[in-house]
Amino acid sequence: MSTDGNAQSRAVVTIRPHRSHRTLRVNAKSWTSSGLTVVIGVAATYAVLQALWPRIIAMLSRLLSLSGVTSSREADFYLGIHTRVPVPSFPAVSVELSLKLAGICALLLLVVSVLPLGKSPLRYWINANIFVLLLTSLYAFFTGTAAYGNSTFMLLVERTSILMILTVPIFSGMVSAFLPFSIVERVGMVVLTVMFDMVFAAVRIIVFALLTARFGSIVEANLYLFFGPLMDVVYFLSIFSLAAVSLGKRLSRNAEAWEWL
Amino acid sequence: MVVAILGGWLVFVVLVMTIYTARHFVFTFSRIYGKQRVSFNDAYESSLPPITVLIPMHNEGSVAAACLDAILASDYPSGHLEVVPIDDHSEDDTAEVLARYAAHDSRVRPITISGKLRGKSNALNLALEEVDTEIVLVFDADYTPGRGLLRALVMAFIDPEVGAVMGRVVPRNTEANLLTRLLSMERSGGYQVDQQARYNLDLLPQYGGTVGGFRRRLLDEIGGFDPAALAEDTELTASIYKHGWKIVYDNRAECYEEVPQTWSSRFKQLRRWSRGHNRVMLRHVITLMRARELVLLARIDASLLLLCYLVPPLLISGWLAALALFLMGRLPFAGGVVLAFCVVLYNSFGNFAPVYQVATAEILDGSTSRLLLLPYLFYMFPFNSWAISVGFMDAVGDAIKRRRGDWEKTARVAS
Fold first, then answer.
1. ipTM of the complex as predicted
2. In a domain, B222, yes or no
3. Which of A120, A149, A171 is opposite residue B348, by nearest beta carbon?
């Protein structure tokens, strides 16, 4: 009798209200921990950046020299951080090259449109890149110039990286404040994003330097608009999704974690 | 001069996008923190009125039986339920399937349309001429409602001011491939957060044309559906609010649908939605902005709702302006740290807002590993933008050439 009663009460306990009636519980503790994560995160990131960033940039300059690219170094002071940004020598935009490139891009657009890629988003990303290259080539053909000079472009890329690295703790802290993440998840999201951002920024600077050294300013628009700050959002999303999975799993294990209407 | 125009346009686009970003966040926070409004679906013992369920069908032989089976298995009182499948110029075995059901169940009364006009609006208008009940529910043929769904939807009409009700759409072929998983996530964000938040905030939930219903009186009042409408649901939503009625969103009234399984059919669907929605926008946005029946916030939200399919073409134009300024070496990067910081924050939060809404919805739905697909929503971005922009151009072409536009049905796979 008592066993049946226990079984029955257990059964009653496991009945959960419908998912449409769920809300999430976020308390003052969450807000405080997110606020602290932002403040400490920005301060720590800034300190690390001040100490490490000039060395990272110096290392990138050495790598660029080792790869055989002729480059100079441009002194920069941005947000209190001193660096000497590597600036590769660009080949000048030639009218002949612009015209050839425009032709190749037009041809590529045609080829991509007949390839069996269906209507998948990949095709649209490829097309968008080719289209931008086509417009840049045409612009260069008609004006004899395109986008920015070598030092302006490299400073732009480097400064954007610094700004993104410093913005990331604010962004991820604010985003995490409104969902019931644990403190570990909040801090983890900030730390992982900043680390990834620093590594990715360094890789991006060297790749951009190598590509612009080879092709000149004609590739700047593609590089900056597609693989610049836009990419930072993509990997932030990936790291956020990892934390969200962890949160989802925790909530699915613990019915008491939900707030019901 | 050129630089000033391009720069001005870019600033305008950023401002519009900022408004939509803020809207995404407001809706998400309303769903997490706000007081949640629930429909009347717990008033189980209330007396139920007679209803008619309309199911427009065009070549739906592969899915018709499943839909009819689900509706006929409903717990709605048998004597108060009439099911009217509308065979709209089908060339497959839809007619035979409907005849079979009509022969075995007196509640099923199929209608066949063979006139010159084709399309959902026209089909609904013709069917409504033969409907006697005050409450009419509409389902698409690929939908399979659960047993209690009709009852839950009808309960909304307890309130005499309610003109229409809308339930939640849940894809049933989610596991088919990446596209269906991503569409399932989009639907989750659209209903679990967006529609519910609009209902919470006393703004304007949208009647979605299926998994919902309306009062017959309302349709008489507005003169029926526009036969030329490609988005009769948006058209009806605008008309409902202009005539001072309310729409109830019932998040608990879930119905299962089949989402497109190929990128090609998804492209066509999005393009058609955009074309139809933008036609409604061109027709109603000004009058809805001025509608005295609505409070100011509701009018603003109505405008944002009607303008939402204009955002991707606007975004593409802003992006082209940015590209032009970049090529001219005139993009205002050097506007100081504060400006640069704002640009970076806009880039982060602006791109993140819709994904955040979807993530919140998925967490509320109890998803776990599927949340790993969140970055892929960003992958769909140019695809969606282009499909919607093409639909927008179609709508503009329709307006200029006074074209009617053909209804292109989404391909079914009978999942």
1. 0.84
2. yes
3. A171
